[in-house]
Amino acid sequence: MPYAEDERHLIDSWTQYIHVEDMRTLAQEALRRVAARSTLVQSRPEIPEPDPATLTGLCDTLVGPNFEAAEDVVIALLRQGVTLESIYHDYLGRAAAQLGEMWDEDRLSFVDVTRGVSRIIVLMRTLRDRADLPRITHAAPILLAAVPGETHALGVTMARDLLRDRGWDVNLLLGLDHDALVEKISKADARLLGLSCSGAATASALARVILAVRMVRPTLPILVSGQFAVTHTDLLAAIAPDSVVTTIDEAVSEIERLTGPASNDNISRPDPTSPWANRP
């Protein structure tokens, strides 16, 4: 599929399942995380402020016609030695917040913001794929959670029990609202996060949790499971978790893969498996 058609397909997936107010909530989520980061920066002078010109250029490329231009900005930051945490918070997070503000001021359309946010999420996943992750062992904690609003907890509870039977240290979070869930995840001693989502009704909640976790725990691998993983593969490609599973055997295999040593290939373009890799 040509690159432009591939991107249009992802944007169509967002607009089909993520409504206008939900997209606004995603932008507000980024703004909240950026505000918290700004408070930290003010208290720690050793953390540099982002370059305003680079940030402006990033915003322009995120809604522009060519996704490669946005990649180039991020690649340049990596080569300059900017940390993963700083790219997430100070550049991608601030860019998402600025896109939301421009939308509120009618300077961007819903489609523009959808394109920008979807590109940010894919960039976050690509960057996380290149992080050096500690090798997980059966003693290392795994965190499983049902997304806010999810009423079907049987599957994720069974997954916890089966993984424990196989020797994994698994903690399960159920019945939490968004803020409480993200707070728990941000402080948990976990090497991997598994999120359960059963259908389109909680798609927006899933997207919001993934965006927040990318900002508070940049290197934490995210795995999505549940019936949603079977019925909404198009939207999952847009939300961009690290992996999607439908069975317990797949889950164990992916836990091993996601938490193994990351490749240290030269920083260039995203993985060939990235939805952005199909270019003319």
UniProtKB/TrEMBL annotation:
Coiled coil: none annotated. Pfam families: B12-binding. Residues 139-269 form the B12-binding domain. GO terms for molecular function: cobalamin binding; metal ion binding. PROSITE patterns: B12_BINDING (PS51332). Residues 259-280 are annotated as: Disordered. This is B12-binding domain-containing protein. It comes from Puniceibacterium antarcticum.
